[in-house]
Amino acid sequence: MKQLAIAASILGLLACSPQGEAKLSAAPEGFDDSYLQKMGFTVETVEASAIEGVYQVITDQGLIYVADGGKMLIGGRIYDITGAQPVNLSENAIRQMRQKDVAAIDGEAIVYQAEDEKYVVTVFTDPTCGYCRQLHNDLQSYLDKGISIHYLAWPRTGLQGSSYEQLKTVWCSDDPKAALTAAKSDKRLPAARCDDPVDAHFALGNKFGVRGTPAMVLPSGELIPGLVPADRLLNTIKQSQ
User: Fold this and answer.
1) Is 95 a catalytic residue?
2) What is the pLDDT of residue 125?
3) Active site includes 126?
4) Fewer CB atoms inside 10 A, N or C side of the chain?
């Protein structure tokens, strides 16, 4: 536990997430991920960063940097300062990670599709969250702007409590869209059980840096915390491209 606390304090934006065994893909020769595993990380990919000798590592808890073949953990972000303006290389890598991961589970989302779809925004939601309810009540304003909303589950109380159970029931319902609307209106849901994706969505949100709901992942991979009205969201999407 002490090691996990140290890792969290170094990185500042990580949180524990439920994952299985390590699924490291083709690590560079000489890279040893055993030290990161001892710290509680599940390593997914390892590649060279923009700095010689420093590796860019995607884990179940997000992006980290390590050196000395996996023996040294580095906190912070990498910027390219050679141009007119600094470029946050770390943020670019994180956005690419989010885009890839969202695409991989898109079939698990509860989708409200705009008739004239121009953009897709993925929203981590919780039926007990007041701002999530407000967003849902205003859903048509997003659809009218050509913004489709793809919901993923992120119970604010973690993998326990009423919101967690509600989300599991919603995703297992015969009509998840109707069930989600009902849950956000404090209506009783018929019992339903299945092999739901709520735990996986929660872990993904943690990996992305979600700390509350709603949290919006834009097409660019940028993460926007909180409720953003449709007009402002459309402008933000255009600026982030």
Assistant:
1) no
2) 98
3) yes
4) N
